[in-house]
Amino acid sequence: MLWGFATLKCPARELFHRFSVQVLDRDLDDACPQVLSNIVWSFGTLGYFDDELVDKISSHVLVRGLDGFKPMEVSSMIWGMAALGHTNERLFEKVSEHVMSTGLEGFNAPKISIIAWSFARARFQAEDLFSLIEEFVVEKGMSSFNSQNIACILWAFAVFGRMTDDLLACAEEQIWSVGFSGFSDQSFVDLLWAFAASDLTGTCTHSGEDTVKLAAAYLRKRSIRSFSPKQLSTMAWAFARLGQFHDQAFYSLEQEILRRDISEFDTSEMTFIANAFRAYRNSRNIANMCNLSGIGIRLLSRLDAEESSATTVECNTPESVSDCELWPEETECEVFKKGEVFKAKVVEKHHKKCASVRSERLDACIPFQAC
């Protein structure tokens, strides 16, 4: 049931709360791995954090072990834990040991990238696991990785300062073959953050160009109206950090930021933006190109009018909280034997709120039945 609501991103906080109350009163021994992973994934997808419920499932898994979990169930569960900010070190250590014991057999591109992302989001260092992932990815290549998978992998390795030339070259091979059109806003920003945090612009293996320069040029084609203030400031920081002062990229960023109310940006975001555009203007001064470009002048004047941006503040790396999603098609919800967990009237009430959710899918995901 929860899987259906989470799949459609349908708000159902009351339903999830009632579910949690019922689970806390029950023994989890009858819940199969798929049910446990779907519960955590569903709560994580809708951002409904319940300390007691998550702690109970974590404790149960630690005692029960992961031997009966499929790769999809492991990745879905640990993704949900990370998305909810649940950082039980013993659980992450157990997942790391389990995944390593499999040699990544059965783990495809989405599952591998989600595992890496989850550990990075939780800031749980697992050096042996990441070494295994890197070795696996470099050997197999990234031809099966989509844009989100690539961004998740590079972001995760950059968080721990583990980006290597081999991994980067492997990712670039795929990026240059498919381009940036498939990247979501967050994936695009995560990718730029990963390059900048690692002080890498690319391996320069493609006609002397590098990947970050390609990304900057791509902004000429892409609308950035849907980007959040944090994403805009992170892009500006990334381009400036790497010395990629592409006129069109900074022009696009300036126009979008000027279009918005400055109150949308917090102090740190305005500081990163101001420093990035000052660096851009300085680069143009050095190149004696100020007379050719007025990019950044209006924006800096506007930011300087704000007390928070009047003085240049020393900034290092903006915090990156990636929002990598685990899509419904990457989880499973098989048909279980029907069981009565919620009263019919509760289900009916939420059916009306989300009429597009098919009743057979909701009934299929009622937990604590044989898998």
UniProtKB/TrEMBL annotation:
Pfam families: RESC6. GO terms for molecular function: RNA binding. Residues 19-197 form the RNA-editing substrate-binding complex 6 protein domain. GO terms for cellular component: mitochondrial matrix; ribonucleoprotein granule. GO terms for biological process: mitochondrial RNA processing; regulation of mitochondrial mRNA stability. It comes from the Eukaryota. This is RNA-editing substrate-binding complex 6 protein domain-containing protein. It comes from Guillardia theta (strain CCMP2712) (Cryptophyte).
